[in-house]
Amino acid sequence: MIAVFRWLIWREFSLALRRKAEVLTALLFFVIVVSLFPLGIGPEIDTLREIAPGVLWVAALLASMLSLNRLFADDYIDGTLEQLIISSQPLALLVFGKILIHWVLTGLPLVLISPILGMQLGMDADSIIILMLTLLIGTPVLSLIGAVGAGLTLGVRGGGVLLSLLILPLYIPVLIFGAGAVESAQAGLGVEAHFSLLSAFLTGSLILAPLGAAAALRISLD
Amino acid sequence: MLESVDLACVRGDRPLFSELNFSIQSGDLLHLKGHNGSGKTSLLRILSGLMLQADGEVRWNGENIRKLRDEFQKELLYIGHLPGIKGDLTALENLRVNNALSGHTISEDLAWNALGRIGLKGREDLPARVLSQGQQRRVALSRMLVSNAKLWILDEPFTALDVKAVAMLQKVLEEHVKKGGMIILTTHQEFSVENIDVRMLHLGLSENKV
Asked: By CB count within 10 A, which of A99, A172, B19, B125 is most buried?
């Protein structure tokens, strides 16, 4: 089972490395959207600092959604997904592997680049650390929940729009508590409650989302 | 032994077949026949557990495959219309990774030999996207050479292959059956395997008579 998991991870990485442009899309989108705000709103640093948590979180959320419909689409089109479903290994485990790599390639870069964007919007060092931590806990939740939606909308015409409609409501709690934590940190308030809730989301989706996504894929291929 | 018990399949609103009963044993080769749209692919997908039937059940050694799941899937090699080949990986990588994902890892030597045998010598290290349609098909089919699954379900295995490859493939099918394997396949091409009784199953015959 571990050997299979290793092969899966190797495969996802090799495919991503041989098509770098697709991997970079989410990251570029994130950087561009956040950079547009100072241009649109004007250079008043107080205003920018105030809206920074919301802007960064909304941009991160949209960026991770942007790459979602590619999660299973390629494997669906070329028939690999069929083979995964009839694999003698548990489908939920294989799906978990795919989500994990997807997050490492699209979610983690957002976390790593966020301090620079935070500085650009005039955030102080402490809030930037909180921002990074919320994104570190929050973006895997986005990938996990998104995978269920991606599985359900696979092969559906206009699946992209449907996917957004389906998962955006589920993203909202993550957005509220993620951005909320950073705002509280900026205001000098405690952030423990926000982090507890974000961690709870992560734990819950870590357990449920791979099972849900596996079931969704079985339905989509029926 | 694979058994189909009262299987029925409905696609859209149209019933494709119903009360389909047959079984195959070790050493059987079943050739599934029928016109386009008679439900051959659907039946193969049901038998391999990819699709849910409208009625009836598929049994492997007397037990429902939906209950067995892993135990059945370990014994199964299904090659469908879609090759499952990644253009960005080489032929060798494709073969090895596809095998691993189906739950059975193979060594590099074994994969190398299989590709050589199926006529891709010298092309093992090329990205699959530069291979021709028929060559990609060969990469997909090379899984048969390294598989230790007992039941092979092959949907149109001869498509896009040249005469030499078809002859080679027939040999592989023959060997598998002689070793006590089972094969279910569909094809519109004529094919012959030596010393083996090919059983036929016609789908949609009743419909044809009307």
From this structure: A99
Task: Give CA torsion, residues A203, A208, A214, A216, to 10 deg.
Answer: -120
Give the total number of structural domains in chain B.
1
CATH of the domain at B49: 3.40.50.300
Residue B188 lies in a domain: yes
Q: Domain residues for B15?
A: 1-75+151-157+181-210
Reported as type and span, the H/E element at residue B152 is strand B151-155
The pLDDT of residue A37 is 93
Q: Which domain holds residue A204?
A: 2-221
Tell me the C-alpha distance between B49 and B72, whole Å.
9
Cβ neighbours of B102 in A, within 8 Å: 83, 86-89
- In whole angstroms, what is the distance from residue A30 CA to residue B146 CA? 45
**What's this model's pTM, rounded to 2 decimal places?**
0.90
- Chain B contact set for A11 (CB, 8 A): 86, 89, 93, 97, 101
Q: How confident is the model over A84-94, as a mean pLDDT? A: 91
**Cα separation, A55 vs A183, whole angstroms:** 11
Q: Do A87 and B98 touch (CB under 8 A)?
A: no
